[in-house]
Design a protein that fits this description.
Layout (H helix, E strand, L loop, with lengths): L3 H6 L3 E5 L4 E3 L7 E7 L1 E7 L5 E8 L3 E2 L2 H5 L6 E4 L3 E7 H10 L1 H27 L2 H15 L4 E2 L2 E4 L3 H8 L3 H13 L4 E3 L2 E3 L1
Antiparallel strand pairs: 1-8, 2-7, 3-6, 3-8, 4-5, 4-7, 9-10, 10-12, 11-12
Amino acid sequence: MIATELLEKYGALSKSFNKSETIFEEGKSPTHYYQILSGEVKMNNFNDDGREFIQGFFNKGQSFGEPPLFLNRVYPANAIAVEDTELLCISKDNFMKLLSENPSVSLKIIENLAQRLHYKSVMAAEISTHEPEHRVLRLIDYSITYFNFKEDKNGHRIDLTRQQIGDLTGLRVETVIRAIKSLEKKGTLKIINRKVYR
């Protein structure tokens, strides 16, 4: 999202994380802005029973964990590397200086945060009030835009696993599989080589 050269100009350094390694923990104070060079990151929480709730997945070019930087509050979730991941990390002070000296970048950050807020608002309403098929389809439709899924002759390939769809909609994997199969029968989705297309 922010040009690598600009981040490096303000002192950003690259840092590697192994698959399943924690980048930051819920309850800790934020110290850096993070942007993904390669790999994937998820933000999650666990309830008292140990059940995981996924806040979101972030991929190459995306940033994550910014709101606490602006609010001076602790992280509301953990950030975990889903696979081997390389990040650009810039200290909070340098990040704030970058934003104050580059207003166009500030606008991009605002737009990005607004997009995420919109996504969470949409999905919160879907998760609380609708049936599994509707939840899955709504997530897929929103994800096509939000995650920039590519389109080919079969449609948009949904690069989310059944587990990830379940985690993002609050559904069990078995329920997600049944919902996808039902949506395929209705002609709403296609399954080609185990990949879901819309």
